[in-house]
């Protein structure tokens, strides 16, 4: 009964949202939040009305990547109105915190409640896409939000870094998505390769990408320009205007996701 009430509340809050895409990873440090932020910006560049929810509450980084570290959430009636960058509404617990340098020392139930509260208390408006950046793994928070979205359904993408364990991680993510009524669109390989600026040769320092039969939506190369844009809080501008190979791959990811979702 509790889950049914939560699902009903989430459905009501997301009534104006056409598609929800959750971003998963089997472990931390693979660039999941970077991919989530870039995907939302890329969808906006395609003319889609996009929003991103930073549900990785212990590893919150999206406001910093998008240059919103000083931004505040507005209040309209009983709803929270998130700030926007490049047409993307951005909601994060970081934007509600008084002391943004303080760690969140919370147990699982409190974290799960905070995520649901952000989902239901935010005024999302009319959106074509809501991108949800989940915490890594398949623990309490990913499970809670996936279950809450279960009645509405949605899509998932998995962010990985190349290596020996990728196939195992992909298999677990496929099962997780299937059991929670999420359609796994495919895999995004971050830090997939490095292209030598002198000769153009491609090197794969982290190893080959082996994902079985899963679709590879994008391979994002290592790029110092991208890393610098993230550090400066200028990721949105980088995705929008950079001509680098990584930026083109990130824009291509948005096109691939939109194409897959809208094809049905």
Question: Which descriptor suits the 3D outline?
Answer: globular
> Helicity level, as a percent range?
25-40%
Q: What structural class results from the helix and strand content?
A: alpha/beta
Count of discrete alpha- or pi-helical segments spanning 4 or more residues: 9
Mean pLDDT reading: 88
Number of structurally distinct domains? 1
- End-to-end C-alpha gap: 31 Å
CATH architecture descriptor name: 3-Layer(aba) Sandwich
- Text of the CATH class: Alpha Beta
Q: Output the helix-strand order.
A: HEHEHEEEEHEHEHEEEEHHH
Number of strands: 12
How much beta, percentage-wise?
A: 15-25%
Radius of gyration: 18 Å
CATH superfamily label = P-loop containing nucleotide triphosphate hydrolases
How would you summarize the topology of this molecule?
Layout (H helix, E strand, L loop, with lengths): L1 H12 L3 E9 L6 H14 L4 E5 L7 H4 L8 E3 L2 E3 L2 E2 L2 E5 L15 H14 L5 E7 L6 H10 L4 E7 L5 H14 L2 E9 L3 E2 L6 E2 L12 E5 L3 H9 L2 H7 L3 H19 L1
Parallel strand pairs: 1-7, 1-8, 2-6, 2-7, 8-9, 9-12
Antiparallel strand pairs: 3-4, 5-6, 10-11
Helix pairs in contact: 1-4, 2-8, 2-9, 4-5, 8-9
Short description:
By secondary structure, the chain is an alpha/beta fold.
Can you give a write-up of this model?
The protein has helices at 2-13, 32-45, 62-65, 108-121, 140-149, 166-179, 224-232, 235-241, 245-263, and strands at 17-25, 50-54, 74-76, 79-81, 84-85, 88-92, 127-133, 154-160, 182-190, 194-195, 202-203, 216-220. It has 264 residues and is an alpha/beta fold. It has a single domain, classed as Rossmann fold (3-Layer(aba) Sandwich). The strands form three sheets. The chain has an eight-stranded mixed sheet, sandwiched between helices. The longest helix has 19 residues, at 245-263.
């Amino acid at each position: 009964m509790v889950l049914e009430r939560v699902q009903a509340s989430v459905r009501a809050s997301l009534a104006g949202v056409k598609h929800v895409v959750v971003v998963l990873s089997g472990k931390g440090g693979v660039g999941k939040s970077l991919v989530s932020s870039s995907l939302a910006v890329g969808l906006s560049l395609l003319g889609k009305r996009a929003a991103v929810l930073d549900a990785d509450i212990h590893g919150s980084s999206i406001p910093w990547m998008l240059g919103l570290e000083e931004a505040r959430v507005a209040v309209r009636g009983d709803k929270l109105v998130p700030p926007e960058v490049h047409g993307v509404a951005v909601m994060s617990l970081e934007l509600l915190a008084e002391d943004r340098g303080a760690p969140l020392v919370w147990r699982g139930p409190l974290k799960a409640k905070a995520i649901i509260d952000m989902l239901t208390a935010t005024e999302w408006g009319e959106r074509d896409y809501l991108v949800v950046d989940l915490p890594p793994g398949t623990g309490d928070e990913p499970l809670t939000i996936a279950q809450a979205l279960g009645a509405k359904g949605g899509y998932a993408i998995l962010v990985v870094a190349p290596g020996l364990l990728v196939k195992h991680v992909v298999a677990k993510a496929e099962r997780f998505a299937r059991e929670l009524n999420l359609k796994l669109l495919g895999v995004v390989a971050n830090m997939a390769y490095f292209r030598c600026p002198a000769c153009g040769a491609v090197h794969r320092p982290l190893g080959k990408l082996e994902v079985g039969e899963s679709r590879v939506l994008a391979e994002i190369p290592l790029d110092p320009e991208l890393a610098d844009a993230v550090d400066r809080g200028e990721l949105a501008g980088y995705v929008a205007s950079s001509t680098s190979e990584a930026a083109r791959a990130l824009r291509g990811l948005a096109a691939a996701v939109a194409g897959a979702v809208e094809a049905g």
